[in-house]
Specification:
It is a single chain. By secondary structure, the chain is α/β, with parallel strands linked by helices. It has one domain: Spore Coat Polysaccharide Biosynthesis Protein SpsA, Chain A (Alpha-Beta Complex), CATH 3.90.550. 38% of the residues lie in helices and 16% in strands. The strands form 2 sheets. It has a 7-stranded mixed sheet, sandwiched between helices. Strand 2, helix 2 and strand 3 form a beta-alpha-beta unit. The longest helix has 18 residues. The chain is globular and about 45 Å long. 42% of the residues are buried.
């Protein structure tokens, strides 16, 4: 399956060239990269465009005015990738917390599932060993909190390292997704679950960013806690249909 990797960026000038180099070197035939930049003041968008100019067949850039947020960046990227007829669409951070090499395993598994999620919480997955206990606890609690309320059978529901079949994203009401922090990841997983799509989880080691600053904030965390409850009511109407349920794996 032709794969398009979507990378939302905001002030990732130190990371992006290294990441693009690793992605384009992966042993995945017909892999393309789409960078969605939110007008980064550190020049990330310009760097991305220069890289795209040197690899016009494999790298493209979507420039957006202003900092519009993670969720809307992914929705814009998904829409463009679907228009480009991508057969598989991956999402990942630009800070190397998601190991590019894992995309190979995820791409292989996608032939049997509607979506494949990178997971920190299945056997073999792990959080950064240098994280303090309070940060590990906060991450684990966020997952437990969302999974318990929404009853999603996914161990890592807040993670942003995912790969989707084109038919899966095309069958989801992306226009209804309105979370913009990491609640966006929860909302996407919940909508896909409500529609009956099948999932696989691939373990990976989540390393803290090596360059640049984290985008996580208290406001993002509180938005996620509030949005989880709203999702329960907003998506009560969603249920699987013969068109949307591609392959239910027993």
């Amino acid at each position: 399956m032709q794969l398009t990797v979507i990378i939302p960026t905001y002030n990732e000038a130190e990371n992006l060239p290294r990441l693009i180099s690793e992605l384009l070197g992966l042993p995945i035939p017909d892999l393309n990269v789409l960078v969605v930049d939110d007008d980064s003041p550190d020049g990330t968008g310009q760097i991305a465009q220069e890289l795209a100019n040197s690899e016009p067949d494999r790298l493209s850039v979507l420039h957006r005015k202003g900092k519009k947020g993670l969720g809307s960046a992914y929705i814009a990227g998904f829409s463009q990738a679907l228009q480009m007829s991508a057969e598989a669409i991956a999402q990942m951070d630009a800070d190397f917390s998601h190991p590019p090499i894992k995309l190979v395993e995820m791409h292989e598994q996608l032939s049997n599932y509607d979506a494949v999620f990178g997971s920190r919480y299945v056997s073999g997955g792990k959080l950064d060993e240098q994280w303090p206990l309070w940060r590990k606890w906060l991450s684990a609690f966020g997952n437990i909190y969302a999974r318990a309320i929404l009853n999603i059978p996914v161990r890592d529901v807040t993670g942003g390292f995912r790969m989707w079949r084109m038919e899966t994203l095309a069958g989801m009401p992306l226009e209804r997704i309105r979370s913009n922090g990491y609640a966006f990841q929860v909302e996407m997983a919940y909508v896909a679950y409500r529609l009956g799509y099948s999932f696989s989880e691939v373990p990976f080691y989540f390393a803290d960013r090596r360059w640049g600053l984290s985008k996580m904030s208290f406001n993002i965390q509180t938005e996620a806690a509030r949005r989880v409850w709203q999702m329960l009511y907003e998506y009560r109407d969603l249920k699987p249909s013969s068109q949307e349920k591609l392959r239910r794996i027993s």
